[in-house]
Design a protein that fits this description.
homotetramer; alpha+beta; five-stranded antiparallel sheet; 18 strands; about 25% helix; about 25% strand
Amino acid sequence: MASNSFGTLFRITTWGESHGKAIGVVIDGCPAGLEISEKEIHQELILRSPGQNPYVTPRKEADLPEILSGVFEGKTTGAPLSILIPNRNADSTPYHAIKEMLRPGHANYPYLTKFGIFDYRGGGRASARETACRVAAGAVAKKILKHHNISLVAYLQEAGGVAANIPLENIETTRTLTQQSPVFCPDENTATAIMERIATAAQEGDSIGGIVAFCITGLPVGLGDPIYEKIEANLAKAMMSLPATKGFEIGEGFQAARMQGSTHNDIFQSDSGEITTQTNYAGGTLAGITTGMPLIGKVAFKPPSGIKKAQPTITLEKKEATLALPKGSKHDPCVAIRAVPIVEAMCALVI
Amino acid sequence: MASNSFGTLFRITTWGESHGKAIGVVIDGCPAGLEISEKEIHQELILRSPGQNPYVTPRKEADLPEILSGVFEGKTTGAPLSILIPNRNADSTPYHAIKEMLRPGHANYPYLTKFGIFDYRGGGRASARETACRVAAGAVAKKILKHHNISLVAYLQEAGGVAANIPLENIETTRTLTQQSPVFCPDENTATAIMERIATAAQEGDSIGGIVAFCITGLPVGLGDPIYEKIEANLAKAMMSLPATKGFEIGEGFQAARMQGSTHNDIFQSDSGEITTQTNYAGGTLAGITTGMPLIGKVAFKPPSGIKKAQPTITLEKKEATLALPKGSKHDPCVAIRAVPIVEAMCALVI
Amino acid sequence: MASNSFGTLFRITTWGESHGKAIGVVIDGCPAGLEISEKEIHQELILRSPGQNPYVTPRKEADLPEILSGVFEGKTTGAPLSILIPNRNADSTPYHAIKEMLRPGHANYPYLTKFGIFDYRGGGRASARETACRVAAGAVAKKILKHHNISLVAYLQEAGGVAANIPLENIETTRTLTQQSPVFCPDENTATAIMERIATAAQEGDSIGGIVAFCITGLPVGLGDPIYEKIEANLAKAMMSLPATKGFEIGEGFQAARMQGSTHNDIFQSDSGEITTQTNYAGGTLAGITTGMPLIGKVAFKPPSGIKKAQPTITLEKKEATLALPKGSKHDPCVAIRAVPIVEAMCALVI
Amino acid sequence: MASNSFGTLFRITTWGESHGKAIGVVIDGCPAGLEISEKEIHQELILRSPGQNPYVTPRKEADLPEILSGVFEGKTTGAPLSILIPNRNADSTPYHAIKEMLRPGHANYPYLTKFGIFDYRGGGRASARETACRVAAGAVAKKILKHHNISLVAYLQEAGGVAANIPLENIETTRTLTQQSPVFCPDENTATAIMERIATAAQEGDSIGGIVAFCITGLPVGLGDPIYEKIEANLAKAMMSLPATKGFEIGEGFQAARMQGSTHNDIFQSDSGEITTQTNYAGGTLAGITTGMPLIGKVAFKPPSGIKKAQPTITLEKKEATLALPKGSKHDPCVAIRAVPIVEAMCALVI
């Protein structure tokens, strides 16, 4: 079944495998007259690019995007944008040894059963590499949002059990601090502690999970649609479509389930002529429609399944085996870090 | 924008307001030859019906459904099923007094801004009454699943801070215990403690939140589609489209973000010829596709916003006011209870 | 597969069989604040109602619609409108005798094979009765179009080989003449000739086909979308989804295939400051997008398959048989007449 | 609005302009395990490629497709196929002179008004070049159909007023004769007469229209869905989404509107144990669902608007002007010829 498209009016369709020739995205429904360049898209891709620092997987990927259509004399024409990102560094020999094994926590078992075929060279289509396409499309979406004065930021809020408490008074400051941090965590102390946790896990050949928070400001009151197209429902689907996600929260999330109504209800007030709420436990949405308060939420990422530590498993023929990832293979110790710009991109795509 | 439909091949479209003549659902894509009766649908509706016990809102609703089309001589014909549920007990006079006020935590502010009109008599379209239609459609979906030997259960796992730990060895036992409990919690001690918490909150004119867990067994390996149509993404959207939901988890959810890869990875084993995993932290899905293990997850519900306690607020004209819900009005102290059969219905609809 | 909905932003979902309790439509995506009443919808339904004159099937159907939701104090609320039309006059006894036979030109063979079940009492879901729902929804759509000064008309252009040549200078005049004609043909001489042809066919227990033309004025330049959502593509799908349609044309249609480019190209001119074309062979659209000229086209309807004349056929068990429709059964001698308001409704729904 | 995708379960998304770097298509929903090669796709592209003979536009396009994803070791993996076709021969200098003019019968006026921007170098996105992507996708679809023993053929049935009468006893013979004909017309005498008509039109700097017929055999009974997803409705949309189409017919089409029911009704018979009909006026479908008889229909193409003959027009600023296409520009005298493989591709995509 066709399942590689996201969105209705502004729709992206992604394609490509981690070890194929290239990956890419077609963006359909982009308004005409928007200035966009390959350089701008590249800038966003650099952020999620591995090999930027020791805390993410050391595969070097140039991620130089090429706009193949939809732009004429520097501006979009209303025709679909086709963006292609070539694949490099695709030596797949290390994977030959493990191609018969079921990899714990990994896509190869359900994919093999569903499709009868699995590109054993990497995650194939299920690889996090697909998310580069989302970031490229997100770069275009963010330019559109900028025209509407909508700002957004995502950051690493927790990893390996170390959590940061980030005030969101000034979203632009948070954004700057986030981009300066090697682990995309705007709080320096937390960032340092997280880096230590990652270093320890990496030494053990292990991996850790993490939580990414997002915040969107400048939204008008009234975005989102009743019943089945609530804004939090579409955000949830977008986030839970990312690799390695296990949970989604809007506003206080699961914590809200432990509060009483008299506390959780955000009290309305007139704030120099504007209607706001004293608190924002709801996270900027009531009954699926934006209230004008910042839209805030969180996404939980599991620890990546690809670890160097040896693990028992079986083969498709049900023989016992031990999976030890090949020395040449490269893996993220904490996928939540690279997920930060991707969550930001998905926010932009949903809005 | 059209937003009252859910699903692609099996699609439901719901309509109706809490204080209108009736509500209903059109089910399109139901296979021909399925035996279904108004009585069976009624049975499911009774479960979510208010007034069953003191722990849910005392409005009496008969919820007698009428099948208007799509069934001939007791069997579905492949044509759309139209199910109508008349509304009763719709005295809206108590609401007149508060029709100008912004109700904290309630849909009326964003709806008024978006549509310029709001049926002040209740939640209108945003009312939890819409979920009766989901339960009716879920009753049909469950009959289809039964033909494929798929079982599912949802239950109240936590409310007011009191949590149960439910073993899921036998899903049918859990289902029976759940339906016997006045608060849909299969663990008796937890149920009692939750009832006390509800009683206290109700006395204070307050409300509490809760968490509903679900478990689906008998699924084949390979359900769900890669990238944007992952099974957890569609479940997340389904659940976050329910009124009052604030969070969604699959498997360990946010707890997974605090684990290490070597622990979180579920080890594959050959279990009397079948491929299973020793643990099920992933919750029955890898990369968006079912693994054959039980599909498990949780949904967080906020404390209902409609409370009797007086709350400060403003009117649309930004005048200060105090909102005290009228004496005649009836509200759930804990919406998560009634949400149990609805979460179960949404599970059935997604699968 | 779900196939009873039409449209994306403004979406209708119809349900109900010709011999069931009722039929109905859910209209989703209707803007809030539109004044609409059951009386207005009834007015449109009367036009397509059988039994109005001897030229259409004599079944008496009151077609009194009931708006069950989506309207509050006379105005739409943005919530889905549910409109129900009860069925009357549903004596199905006459059909018992022929329930085993394959009816030539009729839906019962492919339906039986596809669904394994067929409501032999009439056309079931495939009956033209479903189109009453389209007319009801079209009544709502036309009210929206009226706000945008868009006018439309459909009329019987040809039947039984007799064709009218209708000048479209004044669309309102054509509309009035059409509604005054017992066969919806605005040219009186043609109407008379067509009525004679129908009388002859009816006497022979036979039926005739016909062609319905449509014209939409007041459209802005730029409606429709490139490539797969061209306005003529969506109109074609809408019309070819009507029962008994066999062909669709935009502008000159098949006649255009017999012209030369130098003749067929409509020459642009400045007409008191507005850009128009000297001719309108294109029919108001270029490359799928409106040009501002009237959108014109035609729809071909086959002669109805339900005729009183005896016809040879076989049963599902492949035994030879003779089909003679029961005396009590009622059939249109020319379905194209009743199709006129339906084509008009579909035009409104597409736009 | 997103409008560059076609299909739901098997969905294609096309991108690219006639004078850009490349064009391409993403095919989503292709089953895993299908053998497909660039060579096979190329073979189909050659058929619609211009410059094959003097009867179609002399632009030389190599149309060498590159499969960028979705195929591993020669077989599809279930992941989306991305196929890229580079553009050559894109000298756009000749077009500079006419970039301000409204071109009669051409997309530039509505596109300019809708998007505020138009790639004046050719048809841009509206160019027939986009159809190369449909043919490439059609090549994949045809391979899937072959596995189900479904055959299809399209051929030029009429052009410039000269029509052929093609018996469809043997669809494979018709296919062979069609591919041998320089104008894709399986009847040699008609082909010769059409070539003369084209030569005359070309000499006059003019163009002619044409009609393409299609025939699909081997379809099971029961394909297509009731009401809004009738097979003829989806075929009509597919065909009317092609550039230059003005009409669509299924079975007898408009001729059916001139027949009586007793003649038009196809009589059922038992044909060596199979249920068939004596005639096939319906064209293989009843009430939107296939009957097992060949699915036949026709598509009307207008004469191409791009002609060398000088034509009066105006500019966007409403000044009078004369449009004479530049000497270097190249145009089809009869677009219906090249449309033949495209109609065939669209048939394959719909089925």
